[in-house]
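Entry 14. Structure prediction run on the chain below.
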Amino acid sequence: MIRWLSVVVLALVLMSGLTQWLRRFGFGRLPGDFAFRAFGREWQIPLASTVLLSMIAALVAKLI
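Output returned:
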């Protein structure tokens, strides 16, 4: 359980650090990504970017 929790935390830290870099390549702005304002805050739900990054990760894992 601790191992999975540490993996999730590490992934969240990496994704938050790489967000600006990924936006330069168009991730987070794809047609299936949703952004809206609610409760005085900007919320983002990057569905299409998540699917695309998963497919790329699966392809890399399969090639390795």
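Residues 2-63 form one domain.
Filed with the rest of this week's runs.
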